[in-house]
Each structure stands twice: as structure tokens, then as C-alpha cells.
Write a structure and sequence with these properties.
It is a single chain. By secondary structure, the protein is of the alpha/beta class. It has one domain: Rossmann fold (3-Layer(aba) Sandwich), CATH 3.40.50. The protein has helices at residues 37-49, 60-69, 78-88, 125-132, 139-149, 165-176, 195-209, and strands spanning 26-31, 53-58, 96-99, 117-123, 154-158, 180-181. Bound molecules: flavin mononucleotide. Flavin mononucleotide binds next to α2 and α4.
């Protein structure tokens, strides 16, 4: 007679899906080397302000673009990056973890311990193409691959213009695989006054897709937008 199998730990009762989950989510955020690092940094700031746990990973090209577009030098060392960004955005201790792009031991490399959702903001055509081809050649591509296979939210903020047929086919492939393709296309119906308003419009849409609460600007229909002064009679 074979020995009895060890008893499985009792499963917790199924959650009531009508009750809103209140635990802060864990979000993977990736920066790649497309123009638009200010979107990514603002997204990081809002995620940390929302109490989300954040796993951040960025490419060497993102470091180059950050130098061109912002006042920030993204350190090559993950620990230095975590310290710098946590201080800049007043993160709680342990709220932000930065991983190296080849850190295969990080939780986001595996479907057994992945985040609740992931955003790549901004996303290069190169990274979009690599994910569409299933390469998983670095931690950003692998983490995105995991999100798709686990059917978890993956939001890409792709930036290039104009888009070639190759770009469009890769983005279509990703959309068909379950990714949300969210181009940084701010609306002008809210009468933005400064660049920060345009950035926030896009970041708000990303946060919506990640199911992270925010107060970035009024939603359509909530507050009537005054027409510009020249149109008022
Ligand atoms: C200042 C700057 C802006 C760039 N903007 C874009 C862009 O908007 N979209 C894009 O696909 N690539 C852009 N690139 C090129 C990418 O950074 C390059 O293809 C890189 O290899 C992408 O690597 P990554 O996807 O690993 O970040 C830009 C590069 C630089 C230096």
C-alpha cells in the first residue's frame, strides 16, 4: 500500500467577486528607449502615490532617452536607481523595487509570482516587435511574455511616428494576444494649459487600464468643460 499523499493545504474560500478588492496592486513598469520618458516617470509617481507596489525595469536605451528628455540620470545599478527614485517620489520603504534587465531571478520573470498588471511606457518599436515575436530575450520582454501567457493586463504605450506596416502588424499581433495598445495621444477637449496636462491625460488612461485609482483630471461627463475664452460670447 503506497503511503498516503500529503494533505493539500486547505484552499481559502473563493473570493466574492462582487466585493471590490482593496489590497494595493503590484504593478510592473518598464521604461524603454522611445521618446516619452516623462510619461513613464509621471506614471511611476502616480503608482507610488496610489500605494501600489512597483517593480521597475528599464533598458539602457531608456537611460539615454531620460538624459535627453528629463533632468534625471537613471543609474545603471538597480539599487542606486531604487534609492534615487524612491526619494524623488517619496515611496514607502520597500514599495519600489528596481530590477536589472538581465535579472532572471526576479519575480516578474515567472508566471508563478508575477505582478497584477504591467505597463511598458514608453514602448519602442523594437521592444514591441520582440514581444510580438515571443523572444523573451531580456527581463522586459520576458515579463511581458508572462503577462500574455497568464492572461493578465499588459499595457503598451508605443511611440513612433509614422508607423510602418511592420510596426502596425506587430501591434496588431500584440492586441490580438491580449495586450492593450495605448498610444500617447492626448485629447484636447479638456483644454490643456501646459505639457503636464498632456502627460497626465495619457497617464490617466494607463492607470485606468491598470485598475489603479487616480484623480488626474475630470472624466468626461463629470464636470462640464468651459469653452475657451475666444469662443465665449
Ligand atoms: C532620443 C531618442 C529617441 C528615440 N525615440 C524612439 C521612439 O520614439 N520610438 C522608437 O521605437 N525608438 C526610439 N529610439 C530608438 C531606440 O531607443 C532604439 O531602437 C533602442 O535600441 C531601443 O531599445 P529598447 O527597446 O531595448 O529600449 C530613440 C532613441 C533615442 C536616442
Amino acid at each position: 500500500m503506497p503511503p498516503p499523499l500529503p494533505q493539500c493545504r486547505q484552499r481559502p474560500a473563493k473570493p466574492d467577486y462582487n466585493v471590490r478588492m482593496t489590497a494595493p496592486p503590484t504593478i510592473t513598469l518598464a521604461f524603454t528607449g522611445a521618446s516619452g520618458l516623462p510619461y513613464g516617470l509621471r506614471l511611476l509617481e502616480c503608482l507610488l502615490a496610489s500605494e501600489s507596489q512597483v517593480f521597475l525595469v528599464y533598458s539602457p536605451a531608456a537611460q539615454v532617452v531620460a538624459r535627453h528628455e528629463t533632468d534625471l540620470t537613471l543609474p545603471a545599478q538597480p539599487h542606486a536607481a531604487a534609492a534615487l527614485l524612491a526619494e524623488r517620489y517619496r515611496a514607502r520603504p520597500g514599495q519600489l523595487t528596481v530590477f536589472g534587465r538581465e535579472d532572471w531571478m526576479s519575480p516578474i520573470a515567472s508566471g508563478s509570482n508575477t505582478a497584477d498588471a504591467m505597463a511598458i511606457c514608453p514602448c519602442t518599436m523594437g521592444t514591441a516587435g520582440a514581444i510580438a515575436a515571443g523572444l523573451a530575450d531580456n527581463l522586459i520582454e520576458r515579463a511581458a511574455d508572462v503577462m500574455l501567457k497568464e492572461r493578465r493586463p499588459l499595457v503598451l504605450v508605443p511611440r513612433e511616428t509614422p508607423l510602418s506596416a511592420i510596426h502596425l502588424e506587430n501591434l496588431l499581433k500584440l492586441a490580438r494576444a491580449g495586450a492593450v495598445i495605448l498610444p500617447p495621444s492626448p485629447g484636447f477637449y479638456g483644454h490643456p494649459q501646459e505639457i503636464g496636462d498632456l502627460v497626465d491625460f495619457v497617464v490617466a488612461r494607463v492607470l485606468d487600464q491598470l485598475s489603479v485609482a487616480h484623480t488626474l483630471g475630470p472624466r468626461w461627463g463629470e464636470a462640464r468643460v468651459a469653452p475657451p475664452a475666444t469662443e465665449r460670447t
